[in-house]
Structures are given as structure tokens and as C-alpha cells.
Amino acid sequence: MTAKQTIFVNEFTNGILDPEQEMLGPVQDGGHIIAITTPGCWGPMITPCIRGGHEVTKPVYIEGAEVGDAIVILIKSIQVTSIATSSGNDKPVDGRFVGDPFVSVKCPGCGELYPETKIEGTGPESIRCTNCGTDVSPFVFTNGYTIAFDSKRSVGVTLPKEAAEKIARDGHTYMKTPENSVQNPIVTFAPHDLVGTVARLRPFLGQLGTTPRRPMPDSHNAGDFGQFLVEAPHEYGITKEQLEDRTDGHMDINRVREGAVLICPVKVPGGGVYLGDMHAMQGDGEIAGHTTDVAGLVTLQTKVIKGLSIDGPMLLPVPEDLPHLALPPTRQEREAASALAKQWGVKSLEESLPVSFIGTGSSLNEATENGLERAAGTFGVSIPEIMNRATITGSIEIGRYPGVVTVTFLAPLPYLDKLGLTEIVRDQYSPILNN
Question: Which residues pair with 80 in a beta bridge?
């Protein structure tokens, strides 16, 4: 097929990222993807026919992307379309799943796997098996809330019982779930444990990345959630070694927002760029396990870097999201450093630019080790060197608890030059260079 300059995406997976499934596109190298996204965690979590815990867009084939390359994804815009949503802490319900409530739901009444469902009324018992009528939701809230947004999508306020129930009776309208989405809207549960809480919006994508080498539930395409697939009793169970086929597209890093740049590995022909799980806001760590899942409209631009073989994603945050120590030195700081270098016989100063490597694992410690290893391997240097650079010119920041981090530091220009990254990184930070 002829590659297009721009592709519009409004189709979604059943929760499984499968490299054998036909991709959308192709889109030209340097082209754009405009996508409608569905709400992420909670809606799919109470919709058993969705097998991955999320409902992400069908992957897009990028022209010229071959295994061993990387795809640069520029996040041009993120717009929240939902009027309201619900979220909170989750509790799995025993007897309603096989091994993993995100992946393999079983009706406790008729025993059907991945049953179709219907909504009857509101509240946590409203999701019913179409076949036998049994309450089938594999999750309930331990503490939950319903939140509505202002027309400018700048602030949200959590609602009392009466307002939550009004929204619950017309969930698809208030959540603006796309026409091709099959999820049950989570506002149907009408949670209202928090009332009158004010939260400012800063939307980002919890899911953005490329297709893994093997079929994998979308929410488990990461080193922490992926642990639940190892030796799992359902059809998507894998070995520990096979978990290395992941691409870490499910990051829940709040810095993956409008203006940021993500660099992703290509592990299948065409890359298979997908996105979803938009959140209205989230503090570092997503400590509640979930945040405000919303529908939205996203514009991306993609570019292929030939021969850049990386195991997991790299992130170029917007300048204001950089750790303080990872900000490029100002002109005044360079002048002071030059004077100090001359005093101590240092012949030249490093020129460097900020980069972040994503690390994931079963714990934050393991994720940090993974991020350090990825950085060292990409640049061909030792892990202790990366540890030093991240300590004095960067930071380790939590993306998602329990096991996603960013390892950020100032990388010397020769390191970036060797990989063909200098121009991309310099463009990202040109507004603050030489200030």
C-alpha cells in the first residue's frame, strides 16, 4: 500500500498487542498520526471481553521502520474530550478470573471466559453477563471518586452521590467513549468517597509505544505488570525470558505529555505505533494504582532513526519537566565553569544535553537497574559512569509504582553524535540552550 502523510485512527484492539495482526497504515516516515483514544484502565477492567486491561489503538505501520531501528514520536497535542470520569483503588473479586483479573475474566455463573456483558442499573453490581445475568465485574473500588471537568479542561472537582449517580445513568455521554469502543464506562459504578476535592489537569498518555515481539496484553507490556504473565495459567502466559520481547509501551509516566518526545525500539517490521490510556492528571508514581482515565484526541509525528538499536524507550521531556540538575548550563554558568576550569588546568568542558532512559522491572530497584543498564548499553559505557552522571547531572524519578523509572542525565555530545541523536535532542531543548 502507498504510505500516507497522515492517518486518522479510531479503531481499537481487544486488549492484546499481537504482531501477527494486520496494522493500520502505512504512514510515511515523518508523517502524522491523529488518533481518538478511549479511557484506559477502569473501563476495560470491568469489560471482560477486553483481554488486556486497556483498550488501545490498533498499531500503525511506519514506512521504513525495520527491526533494530528506532522510531521518534513527537507528541504534538493532547486534548481531553471526557466531561467526567471515575477512578480509585481497586480490589480483585475472587472467583471471577483465571490467574489475572486484568487478562482472563471468567463468569462466576456460567463459567464463560471473556463473557460479553450488559449494564443493568448503576453501582458496582451493574455489569452483568449477557449469557446468564450474573454480576461479573472482576474489580470493585476500595476507595473511589467521580470527577467532573470544566469546559476548558483546566480543573476538576470530585462529586457527591447524587451527581455521581446522574453521570452513571448516562456514562457513555459523559465519558465521550468513542463509537468503536466496546468498554463499559466506569462512571456506571458512581463512586463518591471523595467529595469537593479540586485537581488541576495536565493530561498525558499512559500508553505510547511500539508493538512487542509476541502477543501480549497491553497493560502488561512493561517490566512490572509483565511479571504477572510469567508462568501464568491463562493463554497469554510466558516465560521470564520471553518477557524481554516487551517494548515498555505501558509507562504511566506523567512526563509523556504534549511537547515531549519519545524514542521507541522497533521489534517488529513497521514498528506498530499504538497509544491510549490517556490520563487527565497524575502525580509521580500513580500511587493509587489508577488515576483519571479519559477519552481524548492526540496528534503525533513519527520519524525513523536507522540502526539505532535500543531495548526500551528513551524520553525527552519538555524543558520544565527536567530535573534541576539535568537542565543544560546557562551562559552565565558556562562562563563561571570556564573560569574555574582554567584555574584548575582543565583543558576543555564537556558539551552535553539531557536525555531520559526508561527502566522497568518487578520493583523500583530492579527498574532502576534496568534503566542504568539500558543507558550504559546504548552509549557503550559502564554502568558506574551512568550512575555518576545521573547523580550529579540528573535524577532517578518514579514513573509508576511498583516498577517504572526514568534515568535522566546530561549526555556528552559525542555520545549523542555517534547514535544520530544530537539534532533531535538539540531541537527539543533549543528554547533553553544558551540562555
Answer: 296
Distance, C-alpha 388 to centroid of its chain:
28
CB of 12 closer than 8 Å to CB of 206 = no
Q: Give whole-number Cα distances, 338 to 325, 331, 332, 347, 353, in Å.
A: 18, 10, 10, 9, 18
Contact 25, 4 (CB under 8 A): yes
How far is it, in rounded angstroms, from Cα 31 to Cα 72? 11
Distances 157 to 86, 204, 290 between C-alpha atoms, Å: 11, 19, 17
Q: Which is nearest to 368 in space by CA: 342, 352, 386, 392?
A: 386
| Contact in structure between 177 and 198 (CB atoms under 8 Å) | no
Question: Would you say the C-alpha torsion 303, 307, 308, 313 has a positive or negative sign?
Answer: positive
pLDDT digits (tens, 9 = 90+) for 161-195: 999 999 999 999 999 999 999 999 999 999 999 99
Nearest in space to 214 (alpha carbons), one of 267, 251, 266: 267
Name the grid cell of 311: 531495548
Question: Per the structure block, which three cell numbers stand in for 25?
Answer: 497504515
Nearest to 411 by CA among 366, 351, 360, 352: 352
Given a cut of 50, the residues of the chain with pLDDT beneath it are none
Bridge partner residues of 84 (DSSP): 148
pTM of the predicted structure, to 2 decimals: 0.97
Closest C-alpha among 262, 238, 259, 240 to residue 250: 262
DSSP reduced 3-state for 300 = strand
CA 141, CA 89: separation in Å to the nearest integer?
A: 6
- For 57, half-sphere exposure in the C-beta direction (CA atoms, 13 angstrom radius) is 33
* Residue at grid coordinates 491510549: 276
Kindly state the DSSP code that residue 1 receives in the 8-state scheme: -
Report CA-CA distances (Å) from 322 to 60, 205, 319, 409, 414: 30, 18, 5, 9, 21
Residue type, 364: L
Written as one letter, the residue type at 247 is T
pLDDT in tens, 382-403: 999 999 999 999 999 999 999 9
